[in-house]
Design a protein that fits this description.
By secondary structure, the chain is an alpha+beta fold. 38% of the residues lie in helices and 18% in strands. The chain has a four-stranded antiparallel β-sheet with strand order 2-3-1-4, with helices on both faces. It is globular. The chain has one domain: Transposase IS200-like (Alpha-Beta Plaits, 2-Layer Sandwich).
Length: 149
Amino acid sequence: MSYTRLLYHIVFRTKNSIPAIVPEYEETLYTYIWGVVKNKKSILYRIGGMPDHLHLLIDLHPAHSLSDFMRELKVSSNKWLQENPHFPAFCGWAESYGAFSYGLEAKESIIEYIKNQKEHHKKESFADEFRRFMVKNGITIDERYFLKD
């Protein structure tokens, strides 16, 4: 028996940052994603976002690599969104994503941060937010590829 706690704050956006996640139907997308996470024996603590990007706080089951998990989540939700008439502007997910690991002591503050996305983005763009996460986590940004699809 292994004992793990792999908390990831995951951020990913729509292709070309198109605002394709219709606010009136975002809960149906969130429910779908929750099902994908659950099927991977992982825990979704919170999901939220804006029309052009999503934030998830998950506890990833140790049987899954982060890259495999993200590929499967994007492929599955891409297919679901493409087939759903409530998201006509959706044309795919951007290739990149951000995943930042945290300890249990940060869980509640990240949940609150994700809950307040709509208010938060009245003051900060997604590009500035994503850049801030990368800098805070010591990730070197190569401007040639930053937020390019």
